[in-house]
Amino acid sequence: MPHPSDSRKFLTLPAVQPGADVSPAALLCALVALADEILALRSNPFPIHRRSAREAIRQVGAILEFLADVRGRGSALPASAAVGFSELHVALQKLRHLLQDCARPGARLWVLMRSELVSNEFQMLVRSISTALDVLPLASIDAAPELKELVRLVREQAWKATVGTEPADAMAMRSMWSILGQFKNGIAPNRIDLRWILDHLRIRSWNYCSEEIAFLEELFLASLDDDDDEEEAALLGSLMAFMVYCRVVLFDAVDDEKSSEKQSKARARAVSHVNLDHLRCPISLELMTDPVTIATGQTYDRASISKWLKSGCLTCPVTGEKLANNSLVPNSAIRNLMEQFCHETKVTIPEPNGKPKRDLTRTATPLSAAAAGATRMVAAFLVHKLAVGTNQEKNKAAHEIRKLSKSNIFNRACLVEAGSVPWLLYHFSSSDPSIQDNAVAALMSLSKHPSGGKAIVEAGGLGLIVDVIRVALRVEAQQNAAAILFYLSSDEVYRTEIGRMAEAIPTLVELLREGTYRGRKNAIVTLYGLLPCPDNLRKILAAGAIPALASILSSDRADLVNDAVAVLAKIAEGHDGTTAILESSAVPHLVAFLRSSTSRSGRENCVSALLSLCNNGGAKVVSLLEQIPVLMPSLYSLVTEGSPQAGKKARSLLNHIHHLHDQEDLIMMGVIDAQ
């Protein structure tokens, strides 16, 4: 699949027309390189349009023999050869794109359903190759006679060839349409028919199905920019649902977990020897969010090198070499290494500039009636497996729900409607850590849906969630359970119910003290969500949240500190909260944070907390702040450089301090009496 920043859409075949001033010799070298690239594709299986792909590659192989012989002789080429070489160059560029798309892992089902388009493209390209060879002045070109004869034979065969959809492909496509029709009518298709289609496409594992789903989803996201192509979006949705159904119903095991675990350990070993400077763009010196490699083999961040090239610089910034082309090849190895390094060293990973965020609201309704029918049948199947399956089947069902509900609102609604929530809660007490982990993660996604939150509370699930936070078999389950409480805390009724549970808030505060980074983060944001309920505030203070939050203020994780400051600012709005904060060691840490932080929201929350402390604590607090010399420059900086809201709060705090200072001067002068 082309990189998201590339301009070529799948199954479109752009080509660059060689300029009129390009010599035949230069064209010859380019043609040899292009033909070599096409021949390198012959090791691909080509499950769809196999005969057309093999025949096209065979023709290119014969043409390459001729071209290589001509280049090897080194004789002068006639000027008239430029026309034929140019036409051949354009045709081979398009053929390379088409063959790459047909061989692309994950694209098999889509290529099948676009068989008519693909067949037409093969037909036109074969004719284009024949036309290019027809205008080639073979008599004037120095080459072996038998190779010239081979070119003539290829030319004749290409012109006579009739390319169409192969019978087996056509049958598979008809079967696909029939199955989509069954989905639309709520009918479960015959598993033999499903197996036959997958075998034809050589999709033989859970992982292959996932690969197809990921590709179709990528095409769908790209199609969102084209509002006029609703028919294509509907077909993509139907095909995604078909592959999900096959993955869930036909395959008993998730076959990517062990390999993923091995890869993770290998990456962890690799990053232990990585120098962070090697992951920085040589141009911007920043971490590469979207690394790409250019013709010289050097890697840069896409945004930086694109700007360099657009400015007219056609050399490599590091080596100074002139670039043979402007191609930018995504460097997934560097990207993966950078992500792993940042994860291991707790460095925040910046997102690529301009990277589109997925709009989940578009997934609230199914893309087609077939997709809706298939999804409902999948949900019912998974809930049945959760209820009566073997441990392996239960684990796989929870894993599938986890994946399906992660980023699709309609999937969540179907899974809740099918009754998945009570069974997922039931498996919270499983002695199998994998089942528990998958069940908790699945419920976390379902809790984001209004009907999911309601089902959790009605099933009495709050106590089970708190128990998992306390005694989870894996730390991931503990973290995800805290996240469930966070999503539920956005509802006024649910946050009250959570607060009424004796163990809920103390458990969150304990996680705040002793948890992992992600666990502490989830605990902080959940406590913030519970604060609007006055009874919860008292319980949060009683559980000792203030000392735990104060200790986080000295953490080296900026995002944790920002969240802790936001909670302290909310707590400081009341007199009880102010008293608790003043009794802790939080105030000096808040001032230090205000001085060092670069977060606009973090600094605003910090000055809000300090202002509330002054408003509620009176002159004693103002006097305390006046004695901290580094505070005043930070406040003046906010007044001049901060947001309007932050500047207003900083100005109010400065007024408090100046007013106290003026009073002290008047007392010293005897104008007023000391209180």
Descriptors:
three-stranded antiparallel sheet, mainly alpha, transferase, RING-type E3 ubiquitin transferase, disordered N terminus, single chain, about 0% strand, about 675 residues, Herpes Virus-1
Count of helical stretches? 33
Question: Globular, elongated, flat, extended or rod-shaped: what is the shape?
Answer: flat
Beta percentage is under 5%
For the secondary structure, the number of strands is: 3
Radius of gyration in whole Å, from Cα?
A: 33 Å
> Given the helix and strand composition, which structural class is it?
mainly alpha
Major sheet: size, sense and barrel closure?
3 strands, antiparallel
Low-confidence stretches: 1-6, 258-264, 662-674
Amino- and carboxy-terminal Cα gap: 76 Å
Average per-residue pLDDT, rounded, comes to 86
Strand order of the largest sheet: 2-1-3
**Could you estimate the helical fraction of the residues in percent?**
55-70%
Domain U-box: 274-348
Keywords: Repeat, Transferase, Ubl conjugation pathway
EC number: 2.3.2.27
GO molecular function, one term: ubiquitin protein ligase activity
Describe the structure.
- Pathway: Protein modification; protein ubiquitination.
- It comes from Musa acuminata subsp. malaccensis (Wild banana).
- One of its GO terms (molecular function) is ubiquitin protein ligase activity.
- ARM repeats lie at residues 419-461, 544-586.
- It holds the Pfam family ARM_PUB.
- This protein is mostly helical.
- Among the domains are: 24-165, no CATH class; 278-358, 2-Layer Sandwich (Herpes Virus-1), CATH 3.30.40; 544-674, Alpha Horseshoe (Leucine-rich Repeat Variant), CATH 1.25.10.10.
- It is built from 33 helices and 3 strands.
- It has a 3-stranded antiparallel sheet with strand order 2-1-3.
- α20 (462-471) runs parallel beside α23 (504-514) and α24 runs parallel beside α27 (558-571).
- The longest helix is centred in the last third of the chain and has 26 residues, at 644-669.
- The chain is flat and about 100 Å long.
- The termini are far apart.
